[in-house]
Amino acid sequence: MWDMDGTLIDTEPYWMAAEIELVEAHGGVWTREDAVALIGSPMAVSAAQLQGRGVALGVDEIAHALNSAVGAAVAAGIPWQPGAHEALRALHAAGVPQALVTSSFEVLATPFAQAVGLFDVVVAGDTVARPKPDPEPYLAAARLLGVDVTRCVAFEDSRSGLASAVASGARVVAVDSHVVLAPPAGVSRTSSLDRLDVAMISRIASGETMDLRLPA
């Protein structure tokens, strides 16, 4: 089960740029640090923060503006994280069912999933009642896949997503990309998806905890 933004594709710079542009258009100030703090947050949380900086729009309007900006950027070419596309294809070739589990809205997640063509299930932030950090998105994905969530491996790059995946009962891999995570015991870690292969993912699914980060 895969998170999308930051884990599979490097859209975080697109989200940051869209947030900065929107806040500045309403006369406010939004920094990179502000944007990093929102990584992995559900849209309602992000919208509330932007409103607090002067964006005089409703949650739906903010969501539409951000998703449209990021969607346009992704449409120009999928910005894969290193090793991400290769991992998806290798797991697909091995017959492993895969789910996309993202806080992004369906309007952005579904076109991405269709373009990639390797996901069996898509769970977007606006298709669940309780988005990340609640475990519902991962529990829903496991249910749609028809498997026990404890037999799944979830890949996450944000604190909110990590909390969601861990609470679901899945095996979890924390991917240190834009945010350096501090996961609880039992969570595997990697500095990049290109350090993983199908055999390693199988070992993690079986209960092994691995640390594949590059030396500091």
UniProtKB/TrEMBL annotation:
Superkingdom of the source species: Bacteria
Pfam families: Hydrolase
Protein name according to UniProt: HAD family phosphatase
